[in-house]
Design goal:
Layout: H1 3-10, H2 14-29, H3 34-49, E1 53-58, H4 61-80, E2 88-91, H5 96-106, H6 113-119, E3 125-130, H7 136-147, E4 151-156, H8 161-166, E5 169-172, H9 180-201
Parallel strand pairs: 1-2, 1-3, 3-4, 4-5
Length: 204
């Protein structure tokens, strides 16, 4: 059922529900391991140094977060720093013509892997936004990258699913199964934390 649904059933007004929702978010956020955040930053620093591209994917709210990250770690850092070496970051969730063509012609599970087949190069990395960690189209993309010695990064909820097990570096957002909203909220918060961090720390 998920904890949020349980909370909603117990509350009688939006004020109480929102307070409990925020408290739950805070408790989940505190479970994120600091070492995992450190490792993620190391992966991103290496990517930028080598001028590789970060491809970002997700479904539903994860797709929206991928779009936001592409802006926040790309143009936003270019705009707010003096660097000429911002992140090369591309969201593969944004081209409706490409996505619908791939889905129609070869199946929805191929919408990301077929784009990676066109664009992915040595030194590139894949970052995945997923609540369950078990979406077939995301797993297929991750496995394709891994077979080519590429790195897979991710922000995963629930128990992390299969993606957590096969990723090189991941942030585990430990929620009850079904809590999609809180997972996607914290994914977006982590994106903004990274964006503001790099706005201050990138000097070259």
């Amino acid at each position: 059922m998920g904890k949020i649904k349980k909370i909603a059933k117990k509350t009688k007004n939006i004020r109480d529900f929102s307070s409990r929702y925020f408290n739950y978010l805070s408790s989940v956020f505190k479970k994120i391991k600091g070492n995992d955040l450190d490792n993620l930053v190391l992966e991103l620093d290496e990517l930028r140094k080598r001028k590789g591209t970060l491809f970002v994917i997700g479904n539903g709210g994860g797709a929206a977060n991928a779009t936001t990250m592409a802006n926040d770690l790309g143009f936003d850092i270019l705009k707010k720093t003096k660097t000429k070496n911002t992140f090369r970051i591309v969201s593969l969730t944004d081209n409706n013509a490409v996505i619908t063509a791939i889905a129609n012609d070869t199946g929805y599970n191929n919408i990301f892997v077929n784009q990676l087949k066109i664009h992915f190069k040595r030194n590139d990395k894949l970052l995945i936004f997923s609540a369950s960690g078990n979406s077939p189209n995301l797993i297929k993309a991750a496995e394709w990258v891994k077979k080519r010695s590429g790195k897979v990064l991710g922000f995963y909820g629930f128990n992390g699913g299969k993606l957590k097990k096969i990723s090189d570096c991941s942030i585990h957002i430990k929620t009850e199964k079904g809590d999609y909203g809180p997972v996607e909220d914290i994914q977006l918060m982590l994106n903004h934390i990274l964006a503001h961090w790099y706005q201050e720390k990138i000097k070259d």
